[in-house]
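Morning!

This is the sequence you dropped in the shared folder:
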Amino acid sequence: MVHSSAATPDDYIAGLEPDRAAEIAAVRDAVNAALPTGYAERMAWGMISWEVPIELSGPTYNGQPLVYAALAAQKNSNSLYLNCAYVSAERNERLREAFAASGHKLDMGKSCLRFRRAADLDLAAIRDEIASTTPEEFIALYSAARAR
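The structure's back. Tokens below.
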């Protein structure tokens, strides 16, 4: 995994090659446009991350904020991590069905969607998934998953 030491999401994008920066910026804009109030955008784990602030979630297993979604330019592709969709089988299936209905190919790994261009993604489905869960709901889903 490619790791960045950029201090801010803007710095991260500015450090990418222009073509790649445009693709990452387009996906970032889609996520930010749909993001419910209460999440915080920052750099974490060497990528752009949207998180539930620790002040809201309370203690976590690793002492870090809960990552709702993240975005990174990797060596051979780009990755969008949608913990909001991976937190339940129902949400995961909803995302898969939306991609299938739109005709977009879903290149989904265990924890991310891989893409080269923003146009490879069903951005409407991603916006819907991002918008679907408040921080409080995500905390509850996280807590239920950890209890299993």
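Headline: The chain has a mean pLDDT of 92.

More detail when I'm at my desk.
O.
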